[in-house]
Amino acid sequence: MTQFNVPTKSEVSTTNQAIFDHLEKAVGFVPNLYATMASSENGLKNFLDFAGANSSLSTKQKEVINLAVSEVNQCQYCLSAHTAIAGMNGFSADQILTLRAGSAPFDSKLNALARLAKNIAENRGATDAAIIEEYFAEGWTKENLIDTINQVGEITITNYLHRTTEVPVDFPQAEALELVHA
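User: That's the sequence. What structure does it adopt?
Assistant: Structure tokens below.
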């Protein structure tokens, strides 16, 4: 298999170098997965524009989706990154584990969101009608549904990028869900 190296700032375009500077100021470092996107002249900017677009979902709600979908897609990088980010957004370690499993027994509205995100990912968009009805019954709107699907798409991009490139994970490693529950 072709080896994917994480490009350094000097190895990317001037446009991407400016994005690296911004990420270093905002995040403190350039995550390896973002640096890998900079192998494309437009890939990193296009992804960040998509990820930063307005949404009816809060950051915390997006993390529910990120964790459930990353578990379905078995992306160690995204599970590690979003475990850390979810913790920064107020989820406990136990809550993060249940979100990864696609549920949120601690909050019925987030439970409907987690179940929907997991179902969309597992079924490649052929979502179970009962899951959608449960989602709407918890007060989610059609706008929220569209934004949920967009978020599933966003995290799937990074899941697939990591699964394809296998660049090193530069976040604290999330344990395998099976090991945690064993």
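The two ends are 33 Å apart (CA to CA).
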